[in-house]
Amino acid sequence: ELGIRIPRPLGHGPSRFIPEKETIQVGNEDAMMHTLFAESFATLGRLDNVTLVMVFHPQYLESFLKTQHYLLQMDGPLPLHYRHYIGIMAAARHQCSYLVNLHVNDFLHVGGDPKWLNGLENAPQKLQNLGELNKMLAHRPWLITKEHIEQLLKTEENSWSLAELIHAVVLLTHYHSLASFTFGCGISPEIDCEGGHTFRPPSVSNYCICDITNGYHGVDEIHASQTASIPVKMKCVSLLFKSTESVCEVEALMEKMKQLQECRDEEEASQEEMATRFEREKRESMLVCSSEDEESAPTRDVSRHFEDTSYGYKDFSRHGMHVPTFRVQDYSWEDHGYSLVNRLYPDVGQLLDEKFHIAYNLTYNTMAMHKDVDTSMLRRAIWNYIHCMFGIRYDDYDYGEINQLLDRSFKVYIKTVVCTPEKTTKRMYDSFWRQFEHSEKVHVNLLLVEARMQAELLYALRAITRYMT
Predict the structure, then answer these.
(1) Longest alpha-carbon distance in the chain
(2) Cystine design at 33: which of 16, 29, 225, 371 (Cβ 3.0–4.6 Å)?
(3) Name one GO molecular function term (predicted).
(4) In terms of DSSP bridges, do strands 366-367 and 370-371 run parallel, antiparallel, or are they unpaired?
(5) Is the pTM of this model over 0.90?
(6) What is the CATH number of domain 30-196?
(7) What pLDDT digit, counting tens, does each position of 141-179 carry?
(8) Annotated catalytic sites, by residue?
(9) What is d(CA 346, CA 75) in angstroms, rounded to the nearest whole number?
(10) 100-146 per-position pLDDT tens digit
């Protein structure tokens, strides 16, 4: 009556991939989750959808919130508005409008100049200079050299200090990885965010065409009405077949884990054979590509926050390029990266280390419907496969295990979420580990996020170390 347009949510629940009834409902959480919700709300001024999906794993969420709070709000080398602007730059590289919009609001809230939001060319030259490092870290971190670091540290009045650069690098890698989580879990925008609402009035049947085209509200009802005419017996047979096939998938995976453990106990491959298997897996990872591999031009709204919009992910052996293998024995997070970060940006190395360890070691000893399962072999295969895609090798790992444990649809999902997250689809999410719980798939995304972040950090920190020495 007053002519006020009232928004309605476009989606139902925090994720487009996970049915709302299968997420943790606010009000039904346990005491630890409630404390985390309160902390998140106090820090962010909202209970965002990333938190509502991550809370499947409270121990990890606690570490994540603590790290993000420290990076954005506690004492550090960079001013607050720079931190949020760097978050915008990093998220924009993956066209992650969800994160860009959150940080645009935060940037303005801490007194950032609105003119900077018109495009990167309106930001200070110092931030513009970070553009090259941002794009390489996001898409091809193996190309970063000490010369790139030198250019940032020695540009006279627009130069970065070492401490500022470490802070910036950690922020860039944090938001590249968080974009992977956002797309990998199908995070929906909140109702007050762009893309999270519609002003169209509800139709008689409680959904409008915009909901259907976005794959949200009402689709279940449509699907139900379309399948209602299929004979009940046919539907039961179809469901039984799908369920049996998925159960077999879980059983087969567990059997492979058992066989690999027995082979490990019986014989150990030589170093030469291990190196050969790594190279083979690295080559094969380049043949894995998303079936939705069409080029999508970033929208002007997001692309204005970064330069060189045509620059994206390319496998490191394309066009005859040869990138030397990064051997963890020569430069590792535990022995080198951790101490460098902690020295130049106190406490952050400790926070990151804790977050990496929680994601890598997190287990409830379950696999789908099975309990008391040792999942360490599977977790290590996922982590090492991601690092293998980045050309990072562990001398003590048998890369032959990866092909045994990770099937093609899972590899497509992993590579898409890690390398080109903006191309992740619900079909990809649904197609791997079909019998597993959504919480287990979210756990997979935590592994992808942290392995990716560590890989980017290793290349950047190694370049900084080489510059310093």
Answers:
(1) 78
(2) 29
(3) oxidoreductase activity, acting on peroxide as acceptor
(4) antiparallel
(5) no
(6) 1.20.1290.10
(7) 999 999 999 999 987 788 999 999 999 999 999 999 999
(8) 96
(9) 10
(10) 999 999 999 999 999 999 999 999 999 999 999 999 999 999 999 99
